[in-house]
Amino acid sequence: EMQLVESGGGSVQAGGSLRLSCQGSGFNFEYSDMGWFRQAPENECELVSTIDTAGSQTYGDSVKGRFSISLDNAKNTLYLQMNGLKPEDTGTYYCRIDSYCRVPVDWWGQGTEVIVSS
């Protein structure tokens, strides 16, 4: 059974850092294209960062230079290092798998909440 479990969210002051983790089970991250999305209250879902099987990374304009995505295939875990957090980074962060072995999928975790206070 495929499962994604995010962790690492919390409450921090502006300028602080958090590292989010997404632990996968039931499939192999090494063959997956994946990313992080977030949704603030009353806002649309926003792409934060992606990483593909070749290791290529993308970042949303609002997080470039502050956030970093990484993958530990041995642990089947995706990370999002968030530095220089701003109040507008507040939201629920989700891990998503959008392809597995080159087959399109749409797998999501349950989300982890990040609150950044000014």
Keywords:
four-stranded antiparallel β-sheet, seven-stranded mixed β-sheet, mainly beta, single chain, 118 residues
Report what the structure shows.
- By secondary structure, the protein is mostly beta strands.
- It is 0% helix and 58% strand.
- It is built from no helices and eleven strands.
- Strands 2, 4, 5, 6, 9, 10 and 11 form a seven-stranded mixed sheet that branches.
- Strand 9 and strand 10 (103-108) form a beta hairpin.
- The protein is globular, with a radius of gyration of 14 Å.
- The termini are far apart.
- The model has no long low-confidence stretch (mean pLDDT 95).
Topology:
Layout: E1 3-7, E2 10-13, E3 18-25, E4 32-39, E5 45-51, E6 57-59, E7 67-72, E8 77-82, E9 91-100, E10 103-108, E11 112-117
Parallel strand pairs: 2-11
Antiparallel strand pairs: 1-3, 3-8, 4-5, 4-9, 5-6, 7-8, 9-10, 9-11
Q: Quickly give the structural class.
A: mainly beta
Mean pLDDT: 95
What portion of residues is helical? under 10%
Oligomeric form: single chain
Brief write-up:
The protein is mainly beta. The chain contains no helices and 11 strands.
